[in-house]
Amino acid sequence: MYRFLLTPRWWGINIFVLLSIPVCIFMGSWQLSRFEDRVQDHKTASEQTKVNETAAPEPLASVLPVDQKTSGKRTTATGHYGKQLLVPQRDLDERSGFYVVTLLKVEGSGKALPVVRGWVPGKASAAKAPAAPKGEVTVVGALQASESATSNGVTASGGLPVGQVGVISAASLVNLVPYDVYDGWITLDKADSGMTAVPASAPEGSGLDLKAFQNLGYTGEWFVFAGFVVFMWFRLVRREAEALRDAELGIAESV
Question: Which PROSITE patterns does the record cross-reference, listed alphabetically (predicted)?
């Protein structure tokens, strides 16, 4: 009864099924491994954050360039404050406000380091932002990677008033200041007077965000696809066998 499985038509179906199942299993396993990697990255980042909070600050040059291993490390730099900018639409403790970013011209480097000196509630206003200290200063804070092209729906520079910037990155600051800018920034451990310290954020891609759980969802989808292929193969075989049996018994299909 099942000799039809050896016909050219069914050979094609069988080969398709035999190839589809391992592909689905492989893709599901790969998505699962991606989720597990994100879980491990999140765990590592959490552990590293605890270490960074108590670790002694390292010189800026020793923690650059910024990557997942160095992001969040406490660092120190000495220089003179220069141009000050505001970063609007930044939330802290469920309140809306803005960051005060001042460019620190690092001694002996010829470059400037964006320093988030603190957060101020309310609408961004230069009048509300405390002035930077004069003379030589030494800052201590957590190193952060440059932000992406957009933040909270605000573009890097377009549409913002003079003296404001949408994201903290070398790409967005290079056209606003007359000197080279480090590809990274720091947030002070202790904010300057009149402001609230901005906590360091976890490295990008190390959290259990929506993308991580998308990987877990895709894992289930691929395994479901594998089961569906097997189910459909058995269903087609059964229908074909029943049709051949009916033909042998002379039972005509109803129209």
Answer: SURF1
